[in-house]
């Protein structure tokens, strides 16, 4: 957590952000809380920044990317499970019925993930995720999923770290699904990833210890679960929290309750051309109460269409 | 996690360690795995070091220090709970019956902690721990508990960090009991503390969000729980693991299974004069199977009496 690459006046730390209020609000905040002479100075250990993942750091349409992963697993294993043809949520996967699948939410994803991976060791699971990330293609964008991360948010993560922040992911997605690629893609170490978890069991396995995944949910890191997991895993209230949906509202409120001056950022999906436009009515990333509260409390709303020069790294 | 304070040839990174095999084994290992030209070089992100706390970083006799804390709480609350006089484990506390208490183990401690803290917010609990740590005195050593940390281990933590290791605590003790003081005492950030947990519940509380402690155990981070929690919280196998009892054996085996060259260190309590001497028969920190396996596998055994020049910082 050293201050390296401290931006000089000549360098723009957020080149993919338009010169709008949003960018200025971020930079003003960071400059203020890192200034020892400011009344709002925050010591480095307290500079905790938490980021939601789906819809905040990468896209989540037409369905959560982890669900594509889980669907691919179900299809690959379908022959061994003839009963899945008539059993939800597997039936929806085999029928390619995304509408039905979306209704299952993050719990449904975890259920599919659990059932397709129970008994697997954590190392086998990791190998599978890595292989999928390296080969699978987004059905609409025709890109690798990890290419569909937001360039402006990558710059924001880097900018915060360069200013002594410790950056964390706090996502409803499965932690084991994120860890294999977040270091390379976001520059966030594995242990700084908080997410939903499936129970695991250590097995000595004749002198070759393994940790196996069970078919039981441990914790859903969404809504109330976010501040609970932040307490459990990080042990300190964030001063900077970023999300995109009502599932992040509790996390943003938690940061807002920090005695230090805090920053709440909501990514509003307003760009139907370069990305997707959705908010109050969406099944994925519903943003309704959060949108109202952001306006009421003057939290920072990223207007994707107008605030971002480019969306994805390959657009640069 | 930058490499600062890199030790030069002139500086001794472990001045409180005698020039014995143990010290040389540690230094040889660190020099080898940080040398890019060595076949055993380990990239920085993989330099994960996990340390047990009780009996490994600080003393644990005559009973776990957290139990003294819990006992003080029980005594302070006894008037409100007349039934505790006849109910274990509270009766043992009120009778000052340590023998009985020790039998309860880490689960008993958590039970007392839970019952004396249920309903409290995490912030109230933190304040209480900080106050206790600042004022309570060890009944035999007549020192603050946080003065009873091992000077040679503080140097080891610092030496590893200076060589690009990320240092974690992985303890059977309660995580909320450790976090308030570990940063100052060990230089380990709160989010790098893994321990036993009590369930918590987020409460919006009329616009003042809090996280409250419940009277339910979430997870015991001991024995099999250690590699399970390492997977859950850190997401990467350690290359360096240190413990002092049979409760750490699974963690050391987990590090031993790392494809990178790993280091297993067991602190053997052999010093009845400066600290305490105990191993195979002890109720606290029983070290029996682990001692056999350490010898069988040539893991590094710290002989406290002969390997450490000083035990506590105040002995320097
Ligand atoms: Ca989201
Ligand atoms: Ca111990």
Query: What ions, cofactors and ligands are bound?
Result: calcium ion
Averaging pLDDT over every residue of chain A, what do you get?
94
Helix and strand element order of chain A = HEHHHHHHEHEEHEHEEHEH
Residue stretches of chain A low in confidence (pLDDT < 50, at least 5 long) are: none
Secondary structure category of chain A: alpha/beta
Q: Using CB atoms under 8 Å apart, which protein chain pair has the greatest interface?
A: A-B, 41 and 41 residues
Quantity of strands of chain A, as a count: 8
As a whole number of angstroms, the C-alpha radius of gyration of chain A is 20 Å
State the helical fraction of chain A. 25-40%
Tell me which CATH architecture of the largest domain in chain A applies here. 3-Layer(aba) Sandwich
Give the overall shape of chain A.
globular
Number of DSSP helical runs of chain A: 12
What count of structural domains of chain A?
2
